[in-house]
Amino acid sequence: MKVRIVLGVTALLGALVSTSACSNPTGKSWAITYEVSDQGGGTLSEVSYADSPDRYVDEVTQHAVPGPVGAPWKQEVVVSAGQKAEVTAKPTGDLTLTCRILLDGEKELASATAPAPGEPVTCEKLTDS
After folding, report:
1. Complete DSSP assignment for the chain
2. Angle at 40 between CA 36 and CA 43, to 5 degrees
3. Separation CA 36–CA 48 (nearest Å)
4. pLDDT in tens for each of the 129 residues of the chain?
């Protein structure tokens, strides 16, 4: 009888610990597509973007893709609900970059154009929770 009680308590504690380590227990997240382009199909010196490596944890990780990277550039990621989706790109030369953040590859959530040729561009959107 004591063995069953100990095993039951151990299982309950294990379930509580694993639930408390999970800050997004429903796994609610957004399917995000980042896009960066220019008018002439040039190259980018760097692209950085955010994603959630674990949809059950409310956090994002920043990734940097060193250049040269061909434009247009596209990346599909998952971002946990309530977290910021963000992409930044730096051009090589005097390109005028644009960026977009799409939900499910279709609905535009954010877009931006660099303030001047040769300047970086950033798009960001806080996802709804």
Report:
1. -HHHHHHHHHHHHHHHHHHHT-S-TT--EEEEEEEEE-SS--EEEEEEEEE-S-TTSS--EEEEEEEEEESSEEEEEEEETTSEEEEEEEESSS---EEEEEETTTEEEEEEE-SSTT--EEEEEEPP-
2. 55
3. 11
4. 554 544 444 343 344 334 444 566 667 899 999 999 998 778 999 999 999 988 777 789 999 999 899 999 999 999 999 999 999 999 998 999 999 999 999 999 999 999 999 999 999 999 988
pTM above threshold 0.85: no
Q: From 46, 44, 114, 51, select the one nearest 83 (Cα to Cα).
A: 51
